[in-house]
Design goal:
- By secondary structure, the chain is mostly helical.
- It folds into two domains: about 220 residues, no CATH class; about 210 residues, no CATH class.
- About 85% of the residues lie in helices and about 0% in strands.
- It contains 18 helices and no strands.
- The protein is globular.
- The chain starts with a helix and ends in a 9-residue tail after the last helix.
- This is Multidrug-efflux transporter.
- It comes from Roseibium algae.
- InterPro entries: MATE_fam (IPR002528), MATE_MdtK (IPR050222), MdtK-like (IPR048279).
């Protein structure tokens, strides 16, 4: 009986060890997820207030903001390398390496903005060259004249946020983002419409509000890191002028594929909107609503994947492949469970969700409602595989493995996802449902391959 009893105790210890990974994953990941949702609130505020200026102003702001977002996505992807490299340094108990990583992340934010600003200075000319209406291009250029300066604090936020994620201080990221929401609402109201004696600056005022919002959020995070006793000793701004080219290029080598991956994924969703536009205005409107709903729920996997990125990186820094595996698989199970719950809601009550975005007294809304609910039925599956792919991808990033996942992403998003969307949507005649099915297929491909690669991490020697 003794061997049986010992086996049972061993099994209980293993189960307890796995359960012990659930709480830190949730405590780190959920505040980050809520911070992502709060960030969406900032963008939503801009759209709602600019929309009151008129259709032309709103359209121009979308053009400028999409260009800004493209630049921000790529820069954010590069700087996101601070998380795995910082976590690995913490796992090695190398405080100096962690400080150097964050410092060089801030350097990259500054240096990246220099060529990025060279592009944004010519926003009007670029949009006209892309065939946009000259009037809208001029309005967009005026908006970008202010908005472009928010790029530096926005990228600085990502570098400091990476440090705080590694240190398990996700709550302050949420609080700082919520403070940014409040600042943005107030400044938008004052500067767009010229209330309480402020000048009416319209789109330019919205851009100024974005600059101050990012600067305030960045300032709060920096202040926190300099005041908290456990963080102050890392002195991430200490000798900020000092170069450290080996770490600088290490971040670039790891982060560049991440930036390309984000662009590839963002480009796929932009292309899906173009395909949907070929079907007509009503399908495009339904697509926009469905995508907005799916984007909100997707913030949960985003937060959990950042937690996985940090925790897998920390275990990799210690050389503990079993701990890295537990951190990654626990994040995957939690994420898929969350997304399965959201999928049930999408299947059971799609009409209630879509109705929040429509005026049901308008007869034209009926067709939009019908199409959007059919898209959400596919989005239910789409959400599960999308959650799996972002966890799988960030688990590999935590190990410092970014090049092969980039190849998976390009093949999955474009060779498979876009081709399926085109084939099913138009060749098979499935319409919008076919386009969404293609997206799901591409994401499923990436999710399967990244998680298989993470499973084979020992054989592939991804942890040294």
């Amino acid at each position: 009986m003794a061997p049986i009893g010992q086996s049972r105790q061993y099994g209980l210890r293993i189960a307890q060890l796995w359960r012990s990974d659930i709480r830190p994953t949730l405590s780190l990941g959920m505040p980050l997820a809520l911070a992502q949702i709060a960030q969406m609130g900032i963008n939503t505020t801009d759209v709602l207030m600019i929309g009151r200026l008129g259709a032309e102003e709103l359209a121009a702001s979308v053009l400028a903001f999409n260009m800004w977002m493209l630049l921000w996505f790529f820069g954010m992807g590069i700087i996101q390398a601070v998380i795995p490299l910082g976590a690995q340094a913490l796992g090695r108990r190398a405080a100096r390496d962690l400080r150097r990583t964050v410092r060089m992340g801030l350097w990259i934010a500054v240096l990246y903005c220099l060529p990025a600003w060279c592009l944004t200075f010519f926003t009007e000319e670029i949009l006209i060259a892309l065939g946009q209406d000259p009037t809208l291009a001029a309005l967009a250029g005026g908006y970008m004249d202010a908005l472009q300066w928010s790029l530096l604090p926005a990228l600085g936020i990502m570098a400091v946020r990476g440090f705080l994620t590694v240190m398990g201080r996700a709550q302050i990221v949420l609080y700082a983002t919520l403070a940014g929401v409040v600042v943005n609402i107030g400044l938008d109201y004052l500067l767009i419409f010229g209330e309480f004696g402020f000048p009416r600056l319209e789109l330019f005022g919205a851009g100024i509000a974005s600059v101050f919002t990012s600067a305030v959020t960045f300032g709060i995070l920096l202040l926190y890191t300099s005041r908290q006793r456990a963080l102050k000793r890392y002195a991430i701004l200490g000798r900020i002028w000092r170069t450290d080219w080996s770490v600088f290029f290490k971040i670039l080598r790891l982060g560049f594929p991440i930036g390309i991956t984000l662009i590839a994924e963002g480009g796929l969703f932009a292309a899906s909107s173009v395909l949907m536009g070929w079907l007509g205005t009503v399908p495009l409107a339904a697509h926009g609503i469905s995508l907005q709903i799916a984007s909100i729920t997707f913030m949960v996997p985003v937060g959990l994947s950042q937690a996985a990125l940090s925790r897998v990186g920390y275990a990799a820094g210690k050389g503990d492949t079993e701990a890295a595996g537990r951190a990654g698989w626990v994040a995957l199970v939690i994420t898929v469970s969350f997304m399965a719950c959201f999928a049930i809601v999408f299947w059971v009550a799609p009409g209630a969700l879509v109705s929040l975005y429509l005026d049901l007294d308008n007869p034209a809304s009926v067709e939009v409602l019908y199409l959007a609910t059919s898209f959400l039925a596919v989005a239910a599956i789409f959400q599960i595989v999308d959650g799996a792919q972002i966890i799988g991808t960030n688990n590999l990033r935590g190990l410092g493995d970014t090049t092969i996942p980039l190849i998976y992403a390009i093949i999955g998003y474009w060779a498979i996802g876009f081709s399926l969307s085109l084939g099913l949507g138009f060749g098979a005649g499935w319409g919008g449902v076919g386009i969404w099915s293609g997206l799901a297929g591409g994401l499923a491909f990436v999710g399967i391959l990244t998680n298989i690669r993470f499973y084979r991490r020992d054989k592939l020697k991804l942890i040294s």
